[in-house]
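pasting for ref
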Amino acid sequence: LTISLDAVVYSRIQNPLDGTLRVTDPESCCELLAMSTLRNITGGYMLIELVSSQKALSRQITAALDATGATESCGIRIVRGEITDIYMPETLQRAMAVEQEARREAMAKVASANGERDAVKALKEAADIMEMNPIALQLRYLQTLNTIANDETQSIVFPFPIDIVQKLIK
């Protein structure tokens, strides 16, 4: 897979005499060093890591350029390196977008399932409380009737508790 990276290297002239006497083209020297360092560092990463952690890679490139000290003999010190953009083929961009959408949908389904599980637990706890305390069940029943009566409905369903219906049937 071929991708293109744009990067910027900020440098400072430390010693103008070294820059003119030792190297014929110090700017080209810095540019080639930066390109090879960029290629060496980014070549060891997966594409998703390159896209998601540009700032960390920029810091790593700056540290690598600063640590070598290769340009100091030219009278130049590299101050900072920064990845500005990553170009990849359009088909790859579409494939990554589809993958991210699938990942978001999967996470949404997991969140929905967790919400359902929590709701079931809360309903079970409420049912356990109402089972132990018949007055709580009666209060809930009256709340439900009040809610139904406040709506502008034409009919009201009046539920009977199962135990009363069973006694009437016998």
